[in-house]
Design a protein that fits this description.
Length: about 300
């Protein structure tokens, strides 16, 4: 691995982000041994250990944490300068790193596929995870999340349909249990609970005529992935609480039945968000344009429906 000062700093930042020399080496397209030697050479030159290494884990030392926090703004400035220079190209190129959730990624995939066809010189690196992260610190160009959870210090580009949650269960389940008429009735039902990335159990939220209710249901299963919740609900294990997008096909097929629809008002849809920089990389600017086209087309379609 070429061990110029900038390359060494990029190596440290990548290892710090991923807590893994192997994953960082893949990201930088170098061998793990070359990356390890580069980091070790920098540690030897500055005289401090930046990472605590074991056979199973990699973590920043106290000095490493301070070092990473100090160099991150400077590297961001350098990257911005490189992006500015690259923006003079006629065709957007480079890599766009986007952080999102698995559910949001599935919803936005048609837009991303269209973007890839239009701009073949741009590589999309999509990372899906449930937890909301700081996209600047973790080295992402943009994020895609529900509008309501986009950090307030970010520039947001809304798109896509508004979202609603739905409480659903299988016909077999409702053959054994009377459908709930109000959220309070859920206390007498088997609920498939949802664990959030933080480890907390998600409370089911309802609203009607200004009345807001949160229900912490009980049941035989706690899961952390929508596909598994759907399988459990189809099998008659209990009721689940997911977005309409997740349950649409099952409702159309009749494999799941919806209840309490009047208690689940619409929420804002998805948004692409990015930091408020003076200069936006050409590739990100192109993606923003495609997303705005998609949003405008959806809006016209909705008005004509």
């Amino acid at each position: 691995m070429k061990t110029s000062g900038l390359a060494e700093l990029e190596a440290v930042m990548s290892v710090a982000r991923h807590r893994s020399f192997r994953v960082a080496a893949n990201e930088l397209n170098v061998s793990t041994s070359a990356l390890s030697h580069a980091v070790a050479a920098l540690e030897a030159r500055i005289g401090v250990r930046l990472f605590n290494r074991t056979t199973r884990s990699v973590s920043l030392s106290e000095a490493g944490t301070q070092f990473v926090n100090s160099i991150a703004p400077a590297l961001s400035t350098i990257q911005t300068a490189l992006d500015e220079a690259g923006s003079f190209r006629d065709t957007p190129s480079g890599t766009l790193r986007i952080n999102t959730s698995a559910g949001a990624a599935n919803q936005v995939m048609p837009v991303l596929l269209d973007f890839s066809v239009r701009y073949p010189d741009v590589k999309l690196d999509i990372v899906t995870e449930g937890r909301l992260i700081d996209i600047v610190i973790d080295g992402f160009d943009a994020g895609i999340r529900l509008m309501e959870i986009v950090p307030q210090d970010m520039i947001a580009v809304p798109f896509g349909d508004r979202q609603r949650f739905a409480v659903v269960g299988s016909p077999a389940y409702f053959a054994r249990h009377k459908p709930p008429r109000t959220p309070a009735d859920l206390r007498n039902h088997q609920c498939i609970r949802s664990r959030m990335p933080s480890g907390a159990i998600y409370s089911w939220e309802f609203e009607r005529h200004g009345e807001t209710i949160r229900i912490d249901g009980t049941g035989p299963m706690t899961l952390d992935e929508p596909g598994l919740m759907l399988k459990a609900a189809r099998a008659g294990v209990g009721l689940t609480y997911l977005t309409e997008w997740n349950v649409r096909e099952d409702l159309e097929a009749g494999s799941l039945v919806r209840v309490l629809e009047a208690w689940t008002p619409p929420l804002d849809g998805l948004a692409l968000y990015y930091p408020g920089r003076r200069h936006i990389p050409a590739a990100l600017r192109a993606l923003i344009d495609v997303i705005r086209e998609y949003a405008d087309a959806n809006r016209v379609s909705g008005e004509n429906a």
